[in-house]
Amino acid sequence: METKIYDLTKDDNLTEIFSDAASVINAGGTVVFPTETVYGLGANAYDDEAVKKIFKAKNRPSDNPLIVHISDLDMIDDLVTCISDDARKLMSKFFPGPLTLIMKKSSKVPNSVSNGLDTVGIRMPSDKEANGFIKACGVPIAAPSANISKRPSITNKKYLVEELSGKVDMILCSKNSSIGLESTVLDVSSDKVKLLRPGKISAEDIEKVIGKKVYGYNGEDALLPKSPGMKYEHYKPKTKVVVLNGNDKSIINYLNDIKADDAGFIGLDNITQKIGNKKIKLKSFGKDISDASRNLYYLLREMDSENLDIIYVQAMDSRGIGLAYMNRLLKAASGDIIHL
């Protein structure tokens, strides 16, 4: 397959580019596009055969449902059978943005999108290029993250062509994703609201809007997985990943004592700048948890290219977006964590 590639940071005529991308989508093709969370690999959500191409391109298990992306609230009416009061409040507050709402699906949504479930996830990206692309298509776009299944999601155009050229019809390269972690996923298909995947929008943010408790994933789950099923491989580089959980001093001391020269560490500036062990390959997230979340996938991929035996990564406080960061990091590490 020949992949057509556009760089939206260099091409001025976005209208023409989005029109070309829409032609691909409406002909049953696949397009990689930028969002504020991670890059997505999209197809017409109403086209069963097109959706199946997403799974083939990613080598993704077909039992994993997809999120449907919209550019306008009017698109929701054909996708779901009802919108709860909770959903309406949350859409009013957080759409467009990094929130996916699980609702009862309509008969128009193919089983390939929903994995045969009676629900579907709906999201409206806040990224202007993502919205422009979807609007030009005129149909909702089913899209998981644009990467080979189980690998770290892609937030930087550097890895798009390398990983997906020849597997998709078109790639829309752009700036780095501003958030860097996938959206919060919230089940609002019943009265009991459940957090299925943490993201930038926290359970506390949601509870303030709907005025009731959000059930599901919490901070204890992030730091200490309670069952093997919560430790499956995902977002994973080829190199072994180990999480270091401790205060700055304990992490610095641990790394300074390492004798091997085939280890790397990714952490915040206040730690990486104080490590004296020259054998450790160092990469810094930046100064805070927002930087760490935005750069996690990119730096896992960068460190993976160093041909090391092990990558140590700093654990973070599981509050706010820190919960999402720890969720992704522990999956990348298959739950392998050292408490210092």
TrEMBL record:
Belongs to the SUA5 family. Required for the formation of a threonylcarbamoyl group on adenosine at position 37 (t(6)A37) in tRNAs that read codons beginning with adenine. It catalyses: L-threonine + hydrogencarbonate + ATP = L-threonylcarbamoyladenylate + diphosphate + H2O. One of its GO terms (cellular component) is cytoplasm. The lineage of its organism: Bacteria, Bacillati, Bacillota, Clostridia, Eubacteriales. GO terms for molecular function: ATP binding; double-stranded RNA binding; L-threonylcarbamoyladenylate synthase; tRNA binding. L-threonine binds at T37, H69, R123, A143, S183. PANTHER family: SUA5, THREONYLCARBAMOYL-AMP SYNTHASE. Residues 15-201 form the YrdC-like domain. This is Threonylcarbamoyl-AMP synthase. It comes from the Bacteria. Its EC number is 2.7.7.87. Keywords: ATP-binding, Cytoplasm, Nucleotide-binding, Nucleotidyltransferase, Transferase, tRNA processing. ATP binds at R60, N64, T119, S145, S153, R197, Y235. It is found in: Cytoplasm. GO terms for biological process: regulation of translational fidelity; tRNA processing. It comes from Anaerofustis stercorihominis DSM 17244.
